[in-house]
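RESIDUES AND SHAPES:
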Amino acid sequence: MEPQHLKSVLESLLFVSNKPLKLKDLAGFLQQPENDIRTALESLAAERRNSGVVVLDNNGEYQLATNSANSTQVKNFLNAELREKLTDATVEVLAIIAYPAYLQGRDRSHSRREFPI
C-alpha cells in the first residue's frame, strides 16, 4: 500500500475506533508489515503534533485524542454541553441507574414519581 494511502487508512481507523489499536492488530488487519505501520503512524503523529487532534502512542497502542494544550477549553465545552442536555427527567433516570440498590426488590414503575408511559 502506498505510504500516503496507508496513513489515510490508519487515521480513519483510529478515528472510528472507540479504543486504542495495537500495532500488531493494525498490521494484521491491513496485511502490511509492522514496520510500515509504525512508520506511517509516526509520520501521522508528527503531522498532527500541533493540531487539535493528536495521535497518542501508549506502548504500541495508538489512538486519536484531543491535544492536551486545549484541555481547559475542551473540558469547559463538554461541561456546558452536558448541562444543556440534561433535563430533569434525564437526571432522574441517571439517579435511578446510578443507585441500583434503590431498585432492589422493587418494580421499576414505582421508582418514578409519575406513572409509567
Observations:
- The first helix runs from residue 3 to 16.
- Strands lie at 21-22, 53-58, 61-66.
